[in-house]
TrEMBL record:
It is found in: Membrane. The chain crosses the membrane at residues 42-61, 73-96, 108-128, 135-155, 186-206, 218-239, 260-279, 285-308. It is a multi-pass membrane protein. The keyword NADP does not apply. Residues 55-312 form the Sugar phosphate transporter domain. Coiled coil: none annotated. The lineage of its organism: Eukaryota, Viridiplantae, Streptophyta, Embryophyta, Tracheophyta. GO terms for cellular component: membrane. This is Sugar phosphate transporter domain-containing protein.
Amino acid sequence: MSKDVENPKYGVAQKDSEEGTDAPSHSNETQVTWYSCLLQQASVYGIAAGYCLSASLLSIINKWAVMKFPYPGALTALQYFTSASGVLLCGMLKLIEHDSLDLLTMWRFLPAAVIFYLSLFTNSELLLHANVDTFIVFRSAVPIFVAIGETLYLHQPWPAIRTWISLATIFGGSVLYVTTDYQFTLMAYSWALAYLVSMSIDFVYIKHVVMTIGLNTWGLVLYNNLEALLLFPLELLIMGELKKIKHEISDESDWYSFEVVLPVGLSCLFGLAISFFGFSCRRAISATGFTVLGIVNKLLTVVINLVVWDKHSSFSYTFILDDTAIIGGSVATTNSVEGP
């Protein structure tokens, strides 16, 4: 009888003991999961901050660089060379890890490199023929087309109504600016239209490539910049920039002066930075979210532009436009910045 009584007690005690052992284990798993989520969120915000800082400053530095070195094609080629050689050098020194070069992968990546090259080239031409504010305005219209492309091509859900309202607000700010731009020229807005088309395709298609090609972030930076660099001779022939460069060489231009080397060198360094942070962001968030993030960071660009020189629209209209874009972009980001 005593054994019959003791055995159930022992069983209960044993069960309680097992439950007591499982409880801390479950608690530890919850802690680890929470900590991992926190680290992941911190990583995303850190990458986004790096991208915003790089993009904001690069817009101004590029404008400064093309004023001192008026060859947008050559400038972008120098940026490609710096980024590709920088990745290879750091890889040789074991500072970073990148995917090795492979001809098949290069062929698969080629369309993305061509699109990226066109978007960067039209960006440089737009900055050469227009003020920074005009560049910002047309950059602000890109998310509308990216949202449509992401749904149709990447098979993502249509954005929420609040997102569409936010994107429409950004576009409304763009229209407001165009009606007040005192430096309106047909050439500037032709390049602006080309920039709008190339950037819209860039954000959608490269998002697809980033998620499917199987390269790490530094591998993407290497392949993208190396292949874009290989396309540079074609641009020299099409745009006739080679003749202009040869003429400047014969005229003993001051290319090697500090006034030229400083902005060009900074643009190359920031080109590498934005290439890394840009591909990291493309992995972490949606194509539309990444596009909107690029608009949010333009507030700093406008502030620096107003302080440094007078190549912008009127002060009041600039800030009305930019505030509209920032507010609209922030709301849109709430809906669009999700996982890949």
